[in-house]
């Protein structure tokens, strides 16, 4: 397969306008998921929970696969799997090490159950493949309304607990000492994260959900340290990745996930390069300033040694003078 054939399969824009009109529900669904993913992804990065997102996605995949096997609603099954995983991680994995171990146990279990359910499924192969890599043609108006409701729940929940969750994410020990319900906040956040993961799995698939919930927030943190700017940039990057990936996937013959993950990865690479470019002049200026102030590495040490010697000699001479004056006085009464 030559390069031209690969490009023809990646970018096929035949009847693109008709596809845009036909799949506009998928574009709106992608915009909703980008908004939710960009907002909640900042807290995922603050709390160092990228591994947990992957574990929740695996159980979401298992729930969707079981629902597909028994003929139930895939969205409901995926949502139930995500919520169950989020509750387990939130309750059992209170500490970071415990959370990682719990996720490490849940991931292969969820993946194995999902593969077993897909192996027993006798329906269309495309339905099985879509759970792993995502699809854009399955969003009807009923699903769009349900996704809008779930997105509103996640956004409203984040806005309610935003300030205490930010405090607990930055310094949980101090937040606990101040009386904040850190455990309850963690559990509430995990529930919201489970819903967000279930929403993302429907479009981008279980295997590549990190590209939407992690990469935009990581790129935003490369460019700014302001909490407000990080959230704004994360949402913008998530929307560009999601909506841009959908628009490219409409004109191609591939699943949506390669387009979304590629855009998200390129955004992160550019942000990393910009961060390195901006930090290099600052470090050079800091080194130049330190050199100008210190006057070179040897001079500072010599000055320090001479200063210590001067202090020692002056102290010794003063002590000698004191002894001499004391010794010259009469042994009887002090001189008047």
TrEMBL record:
Its main location: membrane. GO terms for cellular component: ATP-binding cassette (ABC) transporter complex. It is found in: Cell membrane; Membrane. InterPro entries: ABC_BtuC-like (IPR037294), ABC_TroCD (IPR001626). The keyword Transmembrane helix applies. It is a multi-pass membrane protein. GO terms for biological process: transmembrane transport. Residues 308-317, 325-336 have a biased composition (Polar residues). Residues 283-336 are annotated as: Disordered. Keywords: Membrane, Transmembrane, Transmembrane helix, Transport. The chain crosses the membrane at residues 27-46, 66-95, 101-121, 142-165, 185-218, 230-250, 256-274. Belongs to the ABC-3 integral membrane protein family. This is Metal ABC transporter permease. It comes from Kocuria coralli.
């Amino acid at each position: 397969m030559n390069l031209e054939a690969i490009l023809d399969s990646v970018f096929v824009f035949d009847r693109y306008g008709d596809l845009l009109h036909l799949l506009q529900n998928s574009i709106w669904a992608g915009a909703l998921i980008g908004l939710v993913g960009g907002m909640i992804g900042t807290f995922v990065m603050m709390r160092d929970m990228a591994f947990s997102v992957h574990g929740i996605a695996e159980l979401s995949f298992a729930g969707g696969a079981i629902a597909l096997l028994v003929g139930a609603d895939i969205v409901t099954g995926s949502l139930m799997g995500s919520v169950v995983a989020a509750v387990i991680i939130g309750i059992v994995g209170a500490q970071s090490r415990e959370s990682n171990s719990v996720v490490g146990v849940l991931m292969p279990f969820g993946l194995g159950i999902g593969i077993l359910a897909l192996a027993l499924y006798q329906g269309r192969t495309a339905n099985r493949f879509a759970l792993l890599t995502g699809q854009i043609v399955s969003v009807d108006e009923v699903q769009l309304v349900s996704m809008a409701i779930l997105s509103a729940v996640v956004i409203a929940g984040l806005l309610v607990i935003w300030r205490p969750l930010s405090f607990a994410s930055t310094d949980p020990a101090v937040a606990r000492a101040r009386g904040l319900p850190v455990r309850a906040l963690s559990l509430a956040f995990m529930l919201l994260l489970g819903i967000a993961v279930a929403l993302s799995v429907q479009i981008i698939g279980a295997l590549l959900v990190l590209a939407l919930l992690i990469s935009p927030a990581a790129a935003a943190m490369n460019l700014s340290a302001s909490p407000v700017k990080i959230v704004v940039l994360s949402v913008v990057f998530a929307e560009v990745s999601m909506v841009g990936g959908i628009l490219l996937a409409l004109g191609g013959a591939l699943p949506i996930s390669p387009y979304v993950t590629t855009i998200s990865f390129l955004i992160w690479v550019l942000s990393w390069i910009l961060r390195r470019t901006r930090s290099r002049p600052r470090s050079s200026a800091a080194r130049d300033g330190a050199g100008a102030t210190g006057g070179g590495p040897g001079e500072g040490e010599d000055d320090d040694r001479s200063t210590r010697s001067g202090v020692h000699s002056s102290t010794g001479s003063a002590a000698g003078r004191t002894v001499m004056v004391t010794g010259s006085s009469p042994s009887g009464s002090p001189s008047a």
